[in-house]
Amino acid sequence: MLVRSASRKDWIATASGGLAALAAIGFSACSMDVPSGVIIGGFNLYALFWGATILLVGLDRNELYTINAGMAVISMLIIVRFFDADLSFTVRGILFIALGIAFLGANVALVRRTATRKGAIT
Asked: Taking a C-beta distance cutoff of 8 angstroms, is the pair 55, 76 a contact?
């Protein structure tokens, strides 16, 4: 199935299909006494890759909801890492505000770009 989705250039399905393989590798690594930080890092990199893939596919297709889904995956990864990190509430607040501004800015830019292509905004 993974090969079929890759041959059809369905990159979201291809990236999603890697989760089962990564989970199997993670479970095997646990039984071989691999440090948990390595396994967690692998899943974090996979989540970042998955979110970036969804985001790039959305940009390529010019689909706002797909772009938002990719940004949501990346944002959730960042938010989850906040809870693991020893950051002050001020730093966390500033980072959450920055994420919100990034979401808003990306959406405004994409809506304007879409409207410009359709000729609604000059």
From this structure: no
At 70, list the tokens.
């990719």
| pLDDT tens profile 42-77 | 888 988 988 888 888 888 888 888 888 898 898 888
**Between 100 and 118, whose confidence is greater?**
100
Q: Where are the domains of the chain?
A: 2-118
The identity of residue 3, as a single letter, is: V
